[in-house]
Design a protein that fits this description.
By secondary structure, the chain is α/β, with parallel strands linked by helices. It has helices at residues 18-21, 24-38, 53-63, 67-70, 103-115, 130-142, 157-166, 176-183, and strands spanning 3-9, 43-47, 71-76, 93-96, 120-127, 147-150. Helix 6 crosses helix 7 (157-166). The longest helix is centred in the N-terminal third of the chain and has 15 residues, at 24-38.
């Protein structure tokens, strides 16, 4: 199955200006629409985040898709003890050892492991903070011909990324379903693979 990398988070207050430009409701709507369209049709790869992991789990439950067959979650052991409770509900978490140098090197180590996958054909960037830009640069270096979607309307780092890539807010639309169907080349009639 083809794979899509999801880079998303809800910015925290006090972490740069990403919080001020973001709309947490639109971030959640975009992630929910993405998951509803892609799950069972593409394999989703992402780094665990306390706001995103539960949302993807909930969509899997709602549409009756087995999380373990359709999603691969990466976590750095740097955050051990702070994982979302949903991590315990599935067996497909790939834990990456923490780097002795601290958080930045631990995240880089996890991102390298996650983005070196061979079947990644697209990447979707929603909301987020500085890690979104870091993940974009790393993803692009490993997959230079891959399809990139950076949404500007939910704000956060993905808005800056849309400006960086396209020179304008080309994905300022909030009709996320339409964006994902068209730009990920997924038909609404494409059957889901349910194991």
């Amino acid at each position: 199955m083809k794979e899509i990398f999801l880079s998303a988070s809800i910015p925290k207050e006090g972490c740069g200006d990403y919080f001020d430009t973001s709309d947490p409701y639109l971030i959640q709507c975009a992630i929910r629409d993405f998951a509803t369209i892609a799950l069972g049709r593409r394999h989703i790869v992402f780094g665990g985040h306390p706001a995103i992991t539960p949302l993807l789990w909930a969509v899997c439950e709602e549409i009756g898709i087995d999380f373990a067959d359709n999603v691969t979650l990466y976590q750095s052991k740097f955050f051990e003890g702070k994982y979302p409770i949903e991590n315990t509900k599935f067996s497909n978490v790939i834990y990456i050892e923490a780097a002795p140098e601290g958080i930045s090197e631990s995240l880089l180590k996890m991102r390298n492991a996650m983005l070196l996958r061979d079947n990644l054909e697209s990447a979707v960037f929603i909301g987020g903070m500085g890690g979104i830009i870091d993940e974009f640069k790393l993803f692009k270096s490993y997959h230079p011909k891959a399809n990139i979607i950076a949404l500007s309307s939910p704000g956060g780092a993905s808005r800056d990324l849309a400006n960086l890539i396209f020179g304008c807010n080309t994905n300022d639309d909030i009709n996320y379903s339409k964006i994902f169907y068209e730009q990920l080349n997924i038909s609404p009639n494409e059957p889901r693979i349910v194991k």
